[in-house]
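Input/output pair, single chain:
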Amino acid sequence: MGMPAIASADPEPAPAVPNVNAYAPVKTSEYAVMDKTWYAFSIPDGITCVIQRNGSYG
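Output:
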């Protein structure tokens, strides 16, 4: 014996993806640390993000 199906509305659509090309270009020199082998930045909540470059561009 099956259970009756429950009808529900479709979920709201996902928000649109932001246009990253609309953001201002970033100067990587402003974030370079450790003899320009890392990029780092902090936010007010005390979180620091560090990205280590281990290769060259291009």
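DSSP finds no helices and three strands in the chain. The chain has a mean pLDDT of 88.
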